[in-house]
Known about the structure:
The chain is mostly helical. The chain is built from four helices and no strands.
Amino acid sequence: MSWIFLFFAGLFEIGWAIGLKYTEGFSKPLPTVLTVASMMVSLGLLGLALKALPVGTAYAVWTGIGTVGTALLGIWLLGEPATAARLACIGLIVCGIVGLKLVA
């Protein structure tokens, strides 16, 4: 169950990271409220996951999910560059996440 909590914590991390862009410096009320709510859910789920998972592994996987998801959504939603080097680096992060899951 802890891995499920961690997975969803990572998804909510993506939500708040992308949400920050849409708050426009916290000047837009609805995106700001949704972003802050996503932050709270993400941290709450991470806390639940940490009851059973090692903190180093859980934190690395949480930030990895957030990093990969945010980078991919940045490419898809925000028109950020999708260079081969950038995609290869994202792939390396995914390999690290999988590796941590396998050894934890």
